[in-house]
Amino acid sequence: MAAYAIFIRELTRDPAEMQAYAGKAGGTLGGHPVKVLAAYGAQEVLEGPQAEGVVILEFPSMAAAKAWYDSPAYREAREHRFRGADYRAILVDGV
Q1: pTM summary value
Q2: Which of 39, 62, 70, 73 gives a 20 to 30 Å CA spacing to 24?
């Protein structure tokens, strides 16, 4: 069953850290079975607080999503995201 990684950027705190993250994060997807469904495109918030940006990644399974998220390359990249912005990150099984 497909699984989705959803990243919601709520507030940028350090643009330089976010630039470092942007330079590293995309490369971490190589070698993982992932399809980028949305990446910081136009959005319309229907309920809840405004989001600065949204990314949705599709993986073939929750295990595949976790393998990418916990990979050494992404662990290194996400440290910049942690320092640079407030995010919500959610893994959800598809139907």
Answers
A1: 0.94
A2: 62
- The encoded tokens of residue 47 equal 């309920």
3-93 folds as: Alpha-Beta Plaits (3.30.70)
Distance CA 12, CA 73 (A): 22
**CA dist., res. 75 & res. 25, Å (int):** 10
Q: What is the pLDDT of residues 49-66, one digit of tens each?
A: 999 999 999 999 999 999
25: left (phi over 0), alpha (psi -120 to 50) or beta: alpha
| Sign of the CA dihedral with 36 first, then 44, 62, and 68 last | positive
